[in-house]
């Protein structure tokens, strides 16, 4: 059976790949949007932190014998603590300066971290097995759906929309947004704004670590895995609107699907279609699809 002259299995296979990529685009752009939207920090270290989450899972398995599920719990926490240490020791000194200084600092940190891991582990990927509970797949008739891929999509949707709900619909989220708009007033009500800023940055980094663990069985673990993703993820954030939580989530999934469909109908443009979309969106709406003019 064919759809628009394309075999059904090939079409749905590419749609699945698009959804998988979109899941990681959404998770990573969500972390960037949380950090930028609430702290006004352009975190270029995000790709390296995603890579470190994957390496943390690999280390826990190969050195401590802890499997995937333990890694999914421990690695994000470890990365969150690492992020909080960066915020307390480095980033807090730049809050009163232009955003460019934070971008340059995080970009330099990303290069340092990637260089250190590349020196230690080389450039080739390290295998990381999917958990035994999620091996195999389901035959849907029109395509074969691997269980682990289905889990990645479902977990990404739950985490992304759960984060959106907490930030937009709960008292904690209102405190975070108020601290962004008027930190002095929030501090006057007895809320420790510096601690809130640190925890928020740590949470954004923990999301990158979570994405890294989930990516390890699919893409393997290598020092440059974050560098391959981060430019595309920044494009996703720009298209959705810098700082827009819902914009990052919806744009991440949508652009993953668009990229997958492009590989079917016009493969030559699959590596650039997201940047073409970004250029068109910026021409029509410079603040992004869901962003607001600052």
Give your account of this protein's structure:
The chain has 294 residues and is mainly alpha-helical. The protein has one domain. Helices cover 72% and strands 3% of the residues. The protein has a two-stranded antiparallel ribbon. Strands 3-4 form a two-stranded antiparallel ribbon. Strand 1 (2-3) and strand 2 form a beta hairpin. The longest helix is centred in the first third of the chain and has 32 residues, at 8-39. The N and C termini lie far apart (50 Å).
Taken from the alpha-carbon principal axes, the silhouette is: globular
Uncertain residue ranges: none
Class derived from helix and strand content? mainly alpha
* Helix count from the secondary structure assignment: 11
How far is the N terminus from the C terminus? 50 Å
**Percentage of residues in strands:** under 5%
Walk me through the topology:
Blueprint: E1 2-3, E2 6-7, H1 8-39, H2 46-64, H3 68-89, H4 99-121, E3 137-139, E4 144-146, H5 147-169, H6 171-181, H7 183-188, H8 193-219, H9 225-240, H10 245-265, H11 273-284
Antiparallel strand pairs: 1-2, 3-4
Helix pairs in contact: 1-5, 1-8, 1-9, 1-10, 2-3, 2-4, 2-8, 2-9, 3-8, 5-6, 9-10, 9-11
Throw out a few tags for this protein:
294 residues, mainly alpha, two-stranded antiparallel ribbon, two-stranded antiparallel sheet, 72% helix, 3% strand
